UniProtKB/TrEMBL annotation:
Coiled coil: none annotated. The lineage of its organism: Eukaryota, Viridiplantae, Streptophyta, Embryophyta, Tracheophyta. It comes from the Eukaryota. InterPro entries: Histidine_triad_CS, Histidine_triad_HIT, HIT-like, HIT-like_sf. This is HIT domain-containing protein. A motif (Histidine triad motif) lies at residues 84-88. PANTHER family: HISTIDINE TRIAD HIT PROTEIN (PTHR23089). Gene3D superfamilies: HIT-like (3.30.428.10). It comes from Vanilla planifolia. One of its GO terms (molecular function) is adenylylsulfatase activity. The active site is at H86 (tele-amp-histidine intermediate). Residues 45-94 form the HIT domain.
Length: 100
């Protein structure tokens, strides 16, 4: 992520304005959705385990048998810019360390 992108994410404030994810859910923006359901709500503590399990299923479906990375951005200093629970599944190339 470029410095200006990080600064933008750090300055992001949660709002009720539609996010890109809201627009995808409403089919206003085309997307290839590989998995979707209505279970993920912040009040469900157990959902994190479920999301990790689903990430493994999706990774296998996408041919990421050699490995993958799961990312959950949380809060402004975690570069969260979309304020609802979601995960990023990264794979298909060698990940570098340290991340970021």
């Amino acid at each position: 992520m470029a410095t200006s992108e990080k600064e933008a994410a750090l300055s992001a404030v949660p709002s009720d304005a539609p996010t890109i994810f809201d627009k995808i859910i409403k089919k206003e923006i085309p997307a290839i959705v590989v998995y979707e359901d209505d279970k993920a709500e912040e009040r469900h503590v157990e959902i994190l385990g479920y999301l990790l399990y689903v990430a493994k299923i999706v990774a296998k479906q996408q041919g990421l048998d050699d490995g993958f990375r799961v990312v959950i951005n949380d809060g402004p200093k975690g570069c969260q810019s979309v304020y609802h629970l979601h995960i990023h599944l990264l794979g298909g190339r060698q990940m570098e360390w340290p991340p970021g």
